[in-house]
Amino acid sequence: MSYMLTLNLILPNHYSFRKNCHFPPTFPWINIAALPLCPTSQSQINQSLSAMEPHILSAKPCTFYLFSCILLIFAFLASFASAAIHYHEFVIEAKPVKRLCRTHSTITVNGQYPGPTLEVRDGDTLVIKAINKARYNVTLHWHGVRQLRNPWTDGPEYVTQCPIQPGRSYTYQFTIQNQEGTLWWHAHSKWLRATVYGALIIYPKLGSPYPFPLPKREMPVILGEWWDRNPMDVLKLALFTGGAPNVSDAYTINGQPGDLYRCSSKETAMYPVEAGETILLRIINSALNQELYFGVANHKLTVVAVDASYTKPFTTNVIMIAPGQTTDVLLTADQPPARYYMAAHAYNTANAAFDNTTTTAILEYESAHYSAKGGKYLKPIFPQLPGFNDTATATAFTAQLRSPCKVKVPIEIDESLFFTVGLGLINCKNPNSPRCQGPNGTRFAASINNVSFVFPRSTSLMQAYYQGQPGVFTTDFPPVPPIQFDYTGNVSRGLWQPVKGTKLVKLKFGSKVQIVFQDTSIVTVEDHPMHIHGYDFYVVGSGFGNFDPKTDPAKFNLVDPPRRNTIGTPPGGWVAIRFVADNPGIWLLHCHLDTHLPWGLATALLVENGVGKLQTVQPPPLDLPQC
Length: 627
What we know:
The chain has six helices and 33 strands.
């Protein structure tokens, strides 16, 4: 349930990132060349106005001949000053969902799996009332939204809010500020995000162009994971035994597993396309625990954005996308009319079990519904995807990502942090216990700098901080590992057991921050997709082996690094990011493999208030849930 109210507001600089890159302030939704200064016929007016259609969410053509030029001028002016408030109701409840021949009582939003797609423009405000009719506590996270000065609507349970309890509600209200592209939303409570998620598409402000040719149409491609059982029960069992959770039974595209799974062919997701047209695919990895390779048979993909930040366009046969990340690609239907599989399967970097199945959807040329003989569907052509452990292809893909132009990367660093990220094992007093089913009678854990993060339960971190409540957390998170060792070599077993704690990283407002995430070989090397709430950052460098602070910074890209909100550590390697701590509040930093989050692969950034109202956390809403 949703509706929209349009307001006229004076908004800040509407070019934001695009202005820094000197994109021309043109208006792609008006064909200026086709617009005569003084129209000589009604057909000329209608022809000119029809060019507005592709890029406007809703518009009514002007039919008054004498005032057509004046109204077009007003359209130009209004495009700079209009913003909308979008009202939605998200009812979170169990509904029957059938996949893989079986029907499960699945937690959904408004009865939809995946959940509703939210479509807004930069500058718009979202007001979303979340009503919890499920039997679990729940929160919602708006992945990648900056939430400036407003951590109360960020969503991770026990970090910025207590969860919404069954039978209760909470209204998330936030404004999109200088962001555009593909983001997404999802539950941030245990494993509910296995089925509670959806796309969040942010269009440019009226009057601002895409920095690439306008596509004929746009389509979300949401990659997910499906368990043939209740995902919450899968997690519950793993947390009880201390072992690894069971892997998923299928991957999905827009909620459907596709032709290669039992009882799934009839519902395979279809993407119609006309020969010769270019479409924009907004690809989201909402899978809980798996990086994925994605490709379309016989078609090139031109990458134009990641994580709602534009990139220098480059062409590829395949993309690698980690949980939490988004990738926008242009696809031109330049092949013989036929049916072509879109497909995704695992990119696996850990020495661990994984789901080795393949999900498919079908790109169908509209002139190729049926074969010439017998009226049967044409058999789709299958793409070539890299091998499950093909790290070289993943590395080559991420190495091509660049910002469209020179960007303002922090140069003089105020806070230099070195974070080892990886797994660990907790020793058990009774290794034969049912609760110690990890390797050699241990329990799995995970940590950053040997601190395995423990979430509070009686309140949220943000509420405790705002209210000055002591004893909930400390701000002594170690900026470097407590012990230096050969992080990617043969690590002594004495270093495998982390220490539990609720330790936060304290940063001054405006400080220039560098974080190097270093993977370790403890238990196994792995690509850990690290996500920071409330922030984008520049990915300035990466490599394999141990980070060398003396030589590696000289190789950093400080000119046009890509901007992201989630970045993977190369398996057995490191990745370096930089950002300015300009958003006050408490912001979760964690691995987006949801197996690792309850094991403790997280911390939080406590960014202090700056000077004045615009650098200070706003007060909490009146309906903020209590624990």
